[in-house]
Amino acid sequence: MKITKVLVAAAFIAVGFLPFQNAYTVDSTQYWMKVRAKDKFERSLIANTGLAIETTREDFVVGVGSLEEKNAIERLGLLEVSFPLTDAMDFPTKDAAFHNYAEMTEKLRTLVTNHSSIAQMSSIGKSVEGRDIWAIRISGNLAQADSLPAAVFMGGHHAREHLSIELPIYYVEYLLTEYAKGNPRVQRLVNSRDIHFIPMVNPDGAEYDISTGSYKSWRKNRTRNNNGTYGVDLNRNYAYGWGGEGASTSPNSETYRGPHAFSEPETQAIKKYVDTHENITILLSFHTYSQLILYPWGHVYESIANAQDKQVHETMAKKMAEWNGYTPQQSSELYIASGDTTDWSYAEHKIISFTFELDPGNSGWGSGGFYPGAGVIPEVQRKNLEPVLYLIEYSDNPYRVLGSGNGPIFKP
Ligand code: 0X9
Ligand code: ZN
């Protein structure tokens, strides 16, 4: 969105003189606001200022309004956070190829609308600030997709890891457009599978990270903690091993685990989605960066007890590493961290689960780190395409990677 200062100059075509200074400025900037409101009376007070309330929660509302409305709300003593919806609230120009929340929503909506016989878009829950968390479901047989083998891919648990959002978006586009073009491999996969993408698990964090037009290096979500700080680390908030090592009890910390497991609406949404799609056998959560393929456990150094499951994770990780060149290893080889997505999905549902730490590597593309620049997007999408197709392929029975006759065949 662009700054919209409207210069209004009355045109006086009087001969010889200009009677007074007749140019004035109207600031038509709109502000995004989070406003404290504990009941209908406070909400009515706020609505009365003119604020367009978009989301109502137990103790706050979110809306958009003018500077005048923002000032009025400030005078009521209820304003918690505000951003001008100006040039900010978007990626720096050089990184415009990344999708912000609105752009992602629009792109996914268009893709699904154009391929509605094989794709659905649904909100799996709302973020703390009331944004929809979108899931895309792709299958050649949507009516009976629950009885097909399923894989789920997610991105954007961590706010500043914007590259992790570009991959799920791209694979949605790839599968839908290749299917339409008649790509036989994609048609076979889509027709026989139930494929899920949740590209932006933490939309509030991602938007906050770009809210000033330069990156904030934000990681967590945007929960207001009890000490007035913001954010829970969503990859420390899942239930399995929650409360263990490698997660902080301090709300100020970057790795704050939250007051209890699944305290956050974002992780609750993922939990509910995974819990209710019992056909999911494979999960991949994209993060950045370090070029790693990680698998459980992450909360202890021991490996998972089931030897066959361990072997499946190792075999798949090694195979995928041949395509993307990343290093396959157990999560806790990186460091111990409790409450992450994949420990939970494996422990709770026996889903074969991976975390990819995407590019760059530690000493990869310069000092890019979390912000490697938009130029890397196509290459990272390309190198991870084969791993994604492979996971979809083997979701009917991941144990097949160990040779025929291994493990439970998928039963709907
Ligand atoms: O710390 C994390 O959540 C992940 N790394 S990141 O830089 N994207 O924040 C790694 C999670 C791997 N899991 C464990 N080590 N348990
Ligand atoms: Zn991460």
Automatic annotation (TrEMBL):
Record-linked CDD domains: M14_CPT (cd03859)
Catalytic activity field: Releases a C-terminal residue, which may be hydrophobic or positively charged
Signal peptide: 1-23
A GO CC annotation given for this chain: extracellular space
Organism of provenance: Bdellovibrio bacteriovorus
Enzyme class: hydrolase
Molecular function, one GO term: zinc ion binding
Family, per entry: Belongs to the peptidase M14 family.
Cofactor(s) needed: Zn(2+)
GO biological process terms on file: proteolysis
Stretches assigned to the Peptidase M14 domain: 97-395
Origin superkingdom: Bacteria
Record EC number: 3.4.17.18
Alphabetically ordered keywords of this record: Carboxypeptidase, Hydrolase, Metal-binding, Metalloprotease, Protease, Signal, Zinc
Protein name according to UniProt: carboxypeptidase T
Record keyword Cell wall biogenesis/degradation present: no
InterPro entries in UniProt: CARBOXYPEPT_ZN_2, Carboxypeptidase_T, Peptidase_M14
TM helices/strands, residue ranges: none
Family matches, as SUPFAM superfamilies: Zn-dependent exopeptidases
Active site: E357 (proton donor/acceptor)
